[in-house]
Amino acid sequence: MKRNAIISIELSSEAQLKILLQALIPETRQSSTSRSKVSINGEGKLMMIQIEATDTSALRATVNSYIRWVGIAKRTHEVMLTLQEEEACKNT
Q: Span 3-90: which CATH code?
């Protein structure tokens, strides 16, 4: 019996959504396991991650991986924005 999960994440901006989609979509094309399939899309500031897995363990592992990757990509984007703002302040 297949297991499914849909994760909705509201991001701070459409620009952040675009960056996270660019970072994560390649992961959906080359899964590390044949036990789960993932699709990611977004609209506005909302990212949707749809996961289908062959069993509960595979679903849990995939959900954990994508949540972790989203967190890392989001924090990286926020650090880059902060650094850009600091650099802009130095140049004024």
A: 3.30.310.50
pTM of the model: 0.85
Give the model confidence (pLDDT) of 22-72 as tens digits.
999 998 887 767 899 999 999 999 999 999 999 999 999 999 999 999 999
Beta bridge partners of 3: 53
Cα angle at 6 between 4 and 12, to 5 degrees?
160
The Cα–Cα gap between 75 and 80 comes to 9
Sign of CA dihedral 6, 43, 67, 12: negative
Contact of 10 with 56, CB cutoff 8 Å: no
Tokens of 36: 């789960």
> DSSP alpha helices (H): ranges in the chain?
14-29, 56-90
d(CA 37, CA 12): 27
